[in-house]
Design goal:
This protein is mainly beta and 359 residues long. It is built from six helices and 25 strands. Among the domains are: 88 residues, eubacterium ventriosum atcc domain (eubacterium ventriosum atcc fold); 46 residues, no CATH class; 76 residues, Roll (SH3 type barrels). The strands form eight sheets. Strands 11, 12, 13, 14 and 15 form a five-stranded antiparallel β-sheet that branches. The N and C termini lie far apart (87 Å).
Length: 359
């Protein structure tokens, strides 16, 4: 069988292209400089891991790359050293891009305790003045909680061991910069945390934080049957934890009371919008009572519903006379609609009379 030269060329080009690009977008980015306080330099101290899985990030960040220089001195760590350490610990270099600086200058500084905190002989600490600004912990939690606050909740953050006592540093003496190095919003999130003092970097560390979304959520406090209208006795509000924003339920009891269950809902189950439907208080073709207010007078009439509606819906009706004039009104109760600012629960005006001729 003959294969055309054109097809052969395409196959060769496709093969080269497939080998030329990694199957995944994982990358290791080496920083140009870094500051450490410990006796060893860890991978988390000098580079950022992008698009790796959470378990790989946690494992690789804890790897020792080299011995740290003496306090006050600097040393260079080459990209080749980083690459070798990662390969020895299971990294496939064919699937990973190495970028950033060719070498990182690592400076070691003495471990210091922030001003205002002093340790006694027993190892306890006490504040000697009013703390200024947010701690690094609060700074990171605030940054990670932006989407949660917009959705009516907050986040609970559990930090990895890498960041250690840095979490208690405060704004005022220090400045913070936090960058996400993966695209996750919840779950295990990779962070590049940089601490500045007087405009100079004093600490930089790669961190993994486990982030949970917490939100007040309406749940069933007793079984709710199919097609049963939901009352306040059927539901309650509790704080629920979520690993995805789209899993979150409804946070207001008022948003579910009066609606109808589209399926059986178990005790303790989260009430989801997809499991509810509005209860139609007026049905198509039904003759309903129409209230309209003009000044202090409420006019009562009747009309025929063109399309069914639930509480608060604006529906179209026809007059009950031969003219069958169309008009709109708001559903305010079972078999009851109102034209204008009429509350179905209010008593009517001082005078009531019926119009429309229908019965």
């Amino acid at each position: 069988m003959k294969v055309s030269k054109h097809i052969t060329s395409l196959l060769v080009f496709a093969t080269i292209a497939s080998f030329g690009q990694p199957a995944r977008a994982e990358s290791v980015e080496l920083w140009r400089d870094a500051t450490v306080t410990e006796a060893q330099v860890y991978l988390r101290d000098i580079c950022t891991l992008n698009q790796f899985g959470p378990s790989a990030v946690e494992s690789f960040y804890s790897l020792v790359v080299a011995k740290a220089p003496e306090v006050g001195e600097s040393a260079l760590i080459a990209m080749a050293d980083v690459r070798l350490v990662l390969i020895k610990n299971g990294l496939n270099p064919a699937l990973t891009m190495f970028k950033g600086a060719m070498q990182c200058e690592v400076k070691r500084i003495a471990r210091t305790v922030p001003d205002g905190i002093m340790a006694d002989a027993r190892g306890t600490t006490e504040s000697v003045h009013q703390p200024r600004g947010s701690t690094l912990r609060e700074f990171i939690e605030s940054d990670l909680g932006k989407d949660a606050r917009r959705l009516g909740g907050w986040v609970k953050v559990v930090f990895g061991k890498a960041i250690g006592s840095m979490l208690e540093l405060r704004e005022g003496e220090y400045e913070f910069e936090v960058r996400r190095t993966n695209d996750k919003q919840l779950g295990l999130i990779s962070l590049d945390v940089i601490v500045y003092k007087n405009g100079e970097i004093v600490q930089r560390v790669g961190v993994v934080a486990d982030v949970t979304f917490v939100k007040p959520t309406v749940i069933a406090s007793r079984p709710i049957n199919l097609n049963a209208p939901i009352t306040k006795r059927d539901v309650s509000v509790v704080n629920k934890n979520y690993k995805r924003f789209e899993q979150a339920g409804i946070d207001s009891i008022n948003a579910v009371v009066g609606q109808r269950a589209k399926r059986f809902i178990r005790v303790g189950e989260i009430i989801q919008e997809r499991n509810l439907e509005p209860v139609p208080l007026v049905r198509r073709g039904q003759m309903v009572q129409v209230h309209s207010r003009s000044g202090g007078v409420v006019i009562e009439s009747v009309g025929r519903v063109v399309k069914a509606g639930a509480y608060g819906d604006v529906v179209e009706l026809q007059t009950a006379d031969r003219a069958r004039r169309k008009f709109t009104a708001t559903v305010t109760g079972p078999g009851l609609v109102s034209v204008g600012p009429m509350n179905a629960n209010e008593p009517g005006g001082s005078t009531h009379f019926a119009l429309g001729g229908g019965k």
